[in-house]
Write a structure and sequence with these properties.
The chain is an alpha+beta fold. Helix content is 32%, strand content 17%. The protein has a domain of 138 residues: Arc Repressor Mutant, subunit A. The strands form two sheets. It has a five-stranded antiparallel sheet with strand order 4-3-2-1-5. Strand 1 and strand 2 form a beta hairpin. The chain is globular, with a radius of gyration of 21 Å.
């Protein structure tokens, strides 16, 4: 995974991107993804869209490209510096998206969506480090596994009981999901063509570039 998007979200009525901190009584506490890292309360009525759950439509109605994969393709082609911004011309923006998703749906992906994508990539690449998957895997492989000590029957029973207790208690730093931020009744229906409205991402067939 090139950029960690799990805790990052776009919030309706609030410019830029935000990191979800924790749920609050009347909304969710968020931190702006910029130099100031300002913390504020996003009201419960605002729609919260996790970047990790957003996809881009393709010409195959059964397939979408997850935003995480889109960001990976952009990085591999252009690096951390995006060649376009939200102020680029229509031709530059459409050529940019076609360069990373040749089969994107021209009818359902609007120019405003591409502008949003360019803006989001610029923010994330500036404030989140790119993670090399190969390096992460290598580090995991090089770490020797500690030999497991043989447990007595009494110790095994005690550890099993503790594990069951831990499983029933949520961790204090557990990532916040949209389910805890905004209820189904609060979510406004998204307009057709918006990448935020895409169905949950299915595994895409990558095109040769």
């Amino acid at each position: 995974m090139p950029y960690e998007l799990q805790e990052l979200a776009a919030i309706s009525g609030m410019p830029g991107l935000y990191r979800l901190v924790r749920a609050a009584r009347h909304g969710v506490l968020v931190e702006s993804l910029d130099e100031k890292a300002t913390r504020t309360l996003a009201p419960a009525r605002n729609k919260v869209s996790l970047l990790s759950e957003i996809s881009i439509y393709t010409q195959d109605p059964e397939e979408t490209v997850p935003l995480t994969e889109v960001f990976e393709r952009i990085y591999q082609k252009h690096g951390a510096a995006s060649p376009v911004t939200s102020k680029s011309s229509e031709g530059e923006l459409t050529d940019f998206l076609a360069g990373v998703i040749p089969d994107y749906d021209r009818d359902r992906v609007y120019l405003s969506d591409i502008k949003k994508l360019a803006s989001w990539y610029g923010i994330v690449s500036k404030h989140r480090p790119y993670q090399e998957a190969a390096a992460a895997d290598a580090a995991t492989e090089e770490t020797p596994a500690a030999p497991a000590a043989e447990e007595t029957p009494k110790a095994k029973a005690k550890s099993t009981k503790a594990a069951k207790a831990a499983a029933t208690e949520p961790s204090a730093d557990e990532p916040l999901s949209t389910g805890g931020v905004i209820g189904a009744a609060d979510a406004a229906p998204a307009a057709e063509g918006n990448p935020e409205a895409a169905a949950p991402a299915k595994k895409s067939r990558k095109k040769a570039e």
